[in-house]
Automatic annotation (TrEMBL):
Gene3D superfamilies per the UniProt record, alphabetical: 3.30.420.40
The UniProt record lists the keyword Kinase: yes
Keyword Zinc assigned: no
UniProt organism field: Dreissena polymorpha (Zebra mussel)
Any GO CC annotation of this UniProt entry: cytosol
PANTHER family reported in the protein's UniProt record: SUGAR KINASE (PTHR10196), XYLULOSE KINASE (PTHR10196:SF57)
One Gene Ontology biological process: xylulose metabolic process
GO molecular function, a single term: D-xylulokinase activity
Residue span(s) of domain Carbohydrate kinase FGGY C-terminal: 10-61
Taxonomic superkingdom: Eukaryota
Family affiliation: Belongs to the FGGY kinase family.
Record's protein name: Carbohydrate kinase FGGY C-terminal domain-containing protein
Stored InterPro entries: ATPase_NBD, FGGY_C
Amino acid sequence: MYAKACGLTISPQSRVIATGGASANKAILQVIADVFNAAVYVTDVPNSAALGGCYRALYALQPEGTSFSAVITPPPERQPVCVCQPSVGSQQVYSKMLDRYKMLEERVTKLFMSHNK
């Protein structure tokens, strides 16, 4: 829901790259694959939360005209590895849940706004 609000689209070609401690938990990764209906990949980079900042710093040092994609593309041996695919039927289950969640969120927001006038 929030991904769509930010202009992101999720298609069958989409993939999620999971990082950090939870990326070692296969059950969490499967839920992510099912909820987003997308393959989930992990990398072997520890402390990957800092990696984005490192990439930005490295990009700032590149000659003008260098694409950010060229800076962040890892060598073949460091490419993310697919660890989970969406379960069959999960899209139907989670899309119904998403509709219900959206409706509940709208009701709570409306209630909150009416009490804070």
